[in-house]
Design brief:
Distance between the termini: 28 Å
Radius of gyration: 17 Å
Number of helices: 8
Order of helices and strands: HHHHHHHH
Shape: globular
Structural class: mainly alpha
Helix content: over 70%
Length: 186
Amino acid sequence: MDRVALARWLSLALVPLGVWLSVDGSNAGAPLGVPVVLFGLAGFGLSDRLFDPDAASPRSLVDARAADLFQLGAALLVFAFLAVVSGRFESTSAVIASLRSPGASALVAVVAGALLGGGVAVLTFRWDRLRAVSQTVRFRAIGGTATFGTYLALLVAAPSSAFLYAAVYALSRLIALFRLPPPSQW
């Protein structure tokens, strides 16, 4: 199965998942259902443009930024989905109260979020050898495992630190996204 077909199937799988989350009745899952459905439909519609390696025209700056933002949105949806499924979500006020006296888990969350979010992009941009390796499926699988494994470990150990990790991850990815040239121009 090629990348475009796989992306379409995975995007379509998000639609019934989002519908199920919306009608499930859980307080945390219902608001998550609509973005999951919309994300699945957008992914299906953009599959050719985002995942076709043999695209005839070179990707523009806007296409590259849109693909990077799409990936960041997918990661944030996975973070939210893992929190809902595990039942380890907390209210915003509880997270803020627990972060007033941060412990070691908060430090781990900030460092890991910065490294796995924008740090990997900066290192990949700076080192030619790492840039070549980063195109392999194995590298991307290890990166995804590290990103979501760290979040899941923090979610189990300290849910407020997992929220902090997700926030730092997103912020560092956004900073790297808009401060570095898009990966298609490296």
